[in-house]
Amino acid sequence: MTIDPTREQAVIADLLAQTPTDAEHLLPLLLQVQAAVGFVSPQAIRQVAQAFNLSRAEVYGVVTFYHDLREAPVGDHVIQLCMAEACQAVGCRELAAHASQKLGVPLGETTADGHVHLEAGYCFGNCALGPTVRIGDRIVGGVTPARFDELLETLPGRHGNTRPVAGESAA
Ligand code: FES
C-alpha cells in the first residue's frame, strides 16, 4: 500500500482530530495510522509526536518496539499466518509451507509484484478455530491450503476481485 504524502498528512490529521492525545491513546492511534496508510512513516511520527507533545524519538521508540507496527511499506495486502501453539496443533506449519510455495516467498517477505506480504503472527485470539490467518484487519479460521488459495483469489486488486470472504470476522 502506498499513499502520497499530502494525502497521508490529511489522513493522519483526521485520525488525530478524533483521538485524545494522552499516552494511553498513542499505540491505538499508531495502529490506526498503519491501518489507514499501511505503515508509520517518519512524516507520521513527526505529526503524531507534535500532537501528543512528545519527542519524535519517543514515538519512534513505540513504533520500533511493537512488532505489528512497520516503518516502511510492505505489500498491498499483509497476510499473517498464526504460528502460535494452538494453531501449530492443527497444521499451521503445513499451511505456512503451502503459502510460501504458492506465493513464492518465505515468511517475512513480499511477492515480487508487491501484491502480498506474508508473515508469521502469534495468536489472533481465534485459537479454537485454527489454523488462523489475518488478512489486514480480518481474521479467518479453519484455513486449509485450499482455503488459503481461495482467500488469495478474493484479495482486491487480484483479477479485480472484491468478493467478500465467507466465514471471516473483523479483528
Ligand atoms: S494460537 Fe492461533 S489464533 Fe491463537
Mean pLDDT: 90
Strand and helix order: HHHHEHHEEEEHE
Spatial order of the strands forming the largest sheet = 2-3-1-4-5-6
E-strand count: 6
**Distance N terminus to C terminus?**
19 Å
Overview of this structure, please?
The protein has 171 residues and is of the alpha+beta class. Helix content is 42%, strand content 13%. It has helices spanning 5-17, 26-37, 42-52, 56-65, 85-88, 92-103, 145-154, and strands at 77-82, 109-110, 116-121, 133-135, 138-140, 168-170. It starts with a helix and ends with a strand. The structure holds FE2/S2 (inorganic) cluster. FE2/S2 (inorganic) cluster is lined by residues 82, 84-87, 123-124, 126-127, 130, 132.
List the helices and strands and how they pair.
Elements: H1 5-17, H2 26-37, H3 42-52, H4 56-65, E1 77-82, H5 85-88, H6 92-103, E2 109-110, E3 116-121, E4 133-135, E5 138-140, H7 145-154, E6 168-170
Parallel strand pairs: 1-3
Antiparallel strand pairs: 1-4, 2-3, 4-5, 5-6
Helix pairs in contact: 1-2, 1-3, 3-4
Bound molecules: FE2/S2 (inorganic) cluster (FES).
Question: What labels describe this entry?
Answer:
13% strand, 7 helices, 6-stranded mixed sheet, alpha+beta, binds FE2/S2 (inorganic) cluster, 171 residues
Summarize the structure.
The chain has 171 residues and is α+β, with helices and mostly antiparallel strands.
